């Protein structure tokens, strides 16, 4: 597949990128280089290769999924402009 300047103009418009008219041929050339590299990647035989999310095999540490109150009430209320009886105090807005 070959990208021409008209296609490069359309891609720039879709990406909401302003590209000067004289820069469109260079942009089309860069797109063609990228597509050429992708074609090279398509030639690689990946049969039997397991997908991976990292270059090093590692498992994330997990914690027990237990519901708690967080024990952070004092720290959260410390920055409140007005706190009473362990809650945020706000002005009354309904009459």
Structural write-up:
This protein is mainly alpha-helical and 95 residues long. It has a domain at 5-42. The chain has helices at 5-14, 24-42, 73-77, and strands at 83-84, 87-88. Strands 1-2 form a two-stranded antiparallel sheet.
Write a compact overview of the structure shown:
The chain has helices at 5-14, 24-42, 73-77, and strands at residues 83-84, 87-88.
Tags for this model:
single chain; 95 residues; mainly alpha; two-stranded antiparallel ribbon; 36% helix; 4% strand; nucleotide-binding; EC 6.3.5.-; glutaminyl-tRNA synthase (glutamine-hydrolyzing) activity
Count of helix runs: 3
Q: How many strands in all?
A: 2
The helix/strand series, from N terminus to C terminus, equals: HHHEE
Radius of gyration: 28 Å
Approximate shape? flat
Uncertain segments are none
Q: Which strands sit side by side, in order, in the main sheet?
A: 1-2
| Class from secondary-structure proportions | mainly alpha
- Biggest β-sheet strands, sense, barrel: 2 strands, antiparallel
Helix content: 25-40%
**How much of the sequence is in beta strands?**
under 5%
- Distance N to C terminus: 68 Å
Mean pLDDT: 89
EC number: 6.3.5.-
Protein name: Aspartyl/glutamyl-tRNA(Asn/Gln) amidotransferase subunit C
Organism: Yoonia vestfoldensis SKA53
Family: Belongs to the GatC family.
């Amino acid at each position: 597949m070959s990208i021409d300047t008209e296609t490069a103009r359309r891609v720039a418009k879709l990406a909401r990128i302003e590209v000067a008219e004289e820069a469109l041929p260079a942009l089309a050339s860069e797109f063609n280089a990228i597509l050429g590299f992708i074609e090279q990647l398509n030639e690689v035989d990946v049969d039997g290769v397991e997908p991976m999310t990292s270059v090093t095999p590692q498992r994330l540490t997990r914690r027990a999924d237990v519901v708690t109150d967080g024990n952070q009430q004092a720290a959260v209320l410390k920055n409140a402009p007005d706190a009473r009886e362990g809650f945020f105090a706000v002005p009354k807005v309904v009459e």
